[in-house]
């Protein structure tokens, strides 16, 4: 699948459209996925600096070995946005039907949507989500769902703009700290 980003207004004006492709990730992609995930994770969650618990979390969740294991899971698919050999973003999709937190909604879960910080607002996230929706429909899912940190206002606005509805809270717990995540659901 090929994508072409659309000009998008940003703080500095309009971002230039760009060409990129969407493809399914393989075990060979684990290293680049881990690097992009670490970069994006810290850009999102470490705005005020890095605490020890946050450092432990990013190294546990975003290690190359963690992604190698996830890439081998039969129900997990990584959709990669690439330009040549460059990884620009990815969506991690769990194809099995799961319940969306404490809600009554069930569907395929979009576990992560990460776009390199300097590549945002160029159509990459939307193209990855479109590809995730297509894969979910092909699995017979009627909905997709995801969670977003309550303080990630940019992501929450993006999900609402592409048709997701906020249907409740699902706390995320790491090292005895609880963080508010919002559950978003979209009918396919």
UniProtKB/TrEMBL annotation:
Pfam family, one: Acetyltransf_1
Record keyword Transferase present: yes
InterPro entries tied to this protein: Acyl_CoA_acyltransferase (IPR016181), Bact_Acetyltransf (IPR050832), GNAT_dom (IPR000182)
Domain N-acetyltransferase span(s) in chain numbering: 20-186
Keywords: Acyltransferase, Transferase
EC number(s) reported in the record: 2.3.1.-
PROSITE patterns the record matches: GNAT (PS51186)
UniProt key word Metal-binding: no
GO MF terms, alphabetically ordered: acyltransferase activity
Protein name, entry field: GNAT family N-acetyltransferase
Native organism taxonomy: Bacteria, Pseudomonadati, Pseudomonadota, Betaproteobacteria, Burkholderiales
């Amino acid at each position: 699948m090929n994508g072409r980003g659309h000009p998008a207004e940003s703080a500095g004006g309009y971002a230039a459209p760009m060409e990129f492709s969407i493809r399914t990730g393989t075990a060979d992609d684990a290293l680049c996925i881990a690097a992009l995930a670490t970069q994006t994770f810290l850009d999102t969650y470490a705005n005020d600096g890095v605490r020890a618990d946050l450092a432990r979390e990013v190294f546990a969740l975003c290690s190359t070995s963690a992604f190698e294991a996830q890439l081998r899971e039969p129900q997990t698919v990584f959709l990669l946005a690439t330009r040549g050999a460059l990884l620009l973003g990815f969506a991690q999709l769990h194809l099995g039907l799961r319940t969306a937190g404490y809600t009554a909604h069930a569907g395929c879960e979009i576990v992560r949507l990460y776009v390199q910080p300097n590549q945002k607002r160029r159509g990459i996230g939307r193209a990855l989500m479109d590809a995730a929706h297509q894969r979910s429909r092909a699995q017979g899912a009627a909905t997709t769902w995801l969670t977003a940190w309550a303080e990630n206002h940019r992501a929450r606005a993006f999900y609402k703009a592409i048709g997701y509805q906020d249907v409740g809270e699902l706390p995320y717990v790491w090292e005895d700290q609880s963080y508010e995540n919002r559950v978003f659901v979209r009918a396919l």
